[in-house]
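Progress narrative, Year 2. Work on Secreted protein from Cereibacter changlensis JA139 advanced from sequence curation to structure prediction during this period.
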Amino acid sequence: MTLTRLALGLTLAALLALPAAAHYPFCTCALQGGAITCTGGFSDGTSAEGVTVDVISYEEEVLVPGTFDATSTIRVPKPQGEFYILFDAGPGHIVEVDWRDIDGIEP
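Result:
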C-alpha cells in the first residue's frame, strides 16, 4: 500500500509540474539612422522595462550601459569596432546579440 501511495504521489507531482512553462527572454536589434534600437521582452508577454541592456566590447568593456524603457526599447549610438548587446534579466534569462546579427549592419 505504501509503495502504491508513493507512486501515485510522484505521478501527481509530475503532472502538476507540467503547466509551469518557463518564459524566455527575446531581444531584436536594428540599425536606424546611425543608432541601434533594441526591443526586448519575455515570451509570456511580460515587459522588459527596467531590465539591464549593455553594449559591450569584445574586450568586455561596457561601452554603453542602459536599461529598457517603458516600451521595452532602448536606443544607443552605434559604437566603432566589434561589440555585442547583453540583455541580462538574471540567471537563465540572458540574451546576447552580436553586432553581426543586428539588422542593417554590414559585417
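Helices lie at 2-17. The beta strands are 25-32, 35-42, 52-57, 62-64, 73-77, 83-88, 94-98.
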